[in-house]
Amino acid sequence: MKITDVQVIAFRVPVKGHGTKWGYGVFGKERPGVQRITKIATDVGAEGFAVGGEHGYFYAPTKNEVEHLVKPLLLGEEALDRERLWHMMMSHRGFSERLIGNIDCALWDLMGRIAGVPVAKLLGGAREKAKAYASTAPNLGPPEVYAQHALECKALGYKSYKVHAYIYWDPHKQEPAPRRPAFPKEDVAVCRAVREAVGDDIVLMLDPWGIYTYDEALYVGREIQKLNYYFFEHPMDENKLEPYRKLCEELDIPICGPELAPGSCYSRAEWVLQRASDIGRIDTNFGGITACRKAVDMYETMGLRCEMHVGGFGNAQILGATTEDTCEFFERGLLRPGEDYDVTPSYLNRPCDPMDDEGYVHLPQGHGLGVDFNWDYINDNLIQE
Ligand SMILES: [Mg+2]
Question: Is 70 exceeded by the pLDDT of residue 17?
Answer without folding.
Answer: no
